[in-house]
Amino acid sequence: DKFSNHQSLNIYYPFASRGDWELGSWLLHSGLSMGVINTFLSLHLVHFSELLLSGLCWKSQEICTSHPTKRPVLFYWCDSLKLLLSLFNNPELQNVMDLSPYCLYNSMACLYHIYMEWMSGEDAWSMQSQIPMGTTLLRTILSSDKTNI
Questions:
Q1: Closest Cα to residue 117, out of 133, 96, 146, 136?
Q2: How many CA atoms lie within 13 Å of 37's alpha carbon, on the beta-carbon side?
Q3: Are 101 and 119 in contact (CB under 8 A)?
Q4: Residue 101: which residues within 8 A CB-CB, separation 6 or more?
Q5: What is this structure's pTM?
Q6: 74 DSSP β-pair partners
Q7: What is the DSSP letter of 148?
Q8: CB under 8 Å to 111, separation ≥6 — which residues?
Q9: How many CB atoms lie under 10 A from the CB of residue 121?
Q10: 3-state secondary structure 101-143
Q11: Which of 18, 108, 115, 124 is the most buried (most CB within 10 A)?
């Protein structure tokens, strides 16, 4: 792991500090739309570039629109494979990612199926049964201004 030296010095890597990690975690779980999060991150008290995963090469591009806007519309992106690798190498996420489908029942009699996350659903089971043995699903959520994550 090429980032292990950074992680040994800072357990919150690729974030700069615990505070940056807590803010990112709160935004992720807040239920706020990406539009509201973008508005928050555009405030002068928040330095957007400091909140982005620092181990990745983030890029931006101004988007031309057919109608006038108060501010330029910026599109931020990075290499999605490198992003996924950085997430998998984050020790804070080690025990919170489901990598194989599962069924959770309310009792040993298996009378009621409890649905928690996507991997506990029937679609995950169906898709997993159609891919080669030894491989697994990796659900990735892409978001836009209209998507609540």
A1: 96
A2: 22
A3: yes
A4: 119, 120, 121, 124, 125, 128, 137
A5: 0.43
A6: 62
A7: B
A8: 105
A9: 16
A10: CCCEECCCCCCCEECCCHHHCHHHHHHHHCCCCCCCCCCCCCC
A11: 124
d(CA 81, CA 85): 6
**Residue 65: both structure tokens together:** 């629109």
Using CA atoms, how far apart are residues 79 and 16, in angstroms rounded to an integer?
Answer: 20
Alpha-helical (H) ranges within the chain are: 4-9, 18-29, 34-41, 48-51, 80-88, 122-129
- pLDDT tens by residue, 76-127: 777 878 878 877 777 777 777 778 888 888 888 888 888 888 888 888 888 8
CA atoms of 81 and 28, how far apart (whole Å): 20
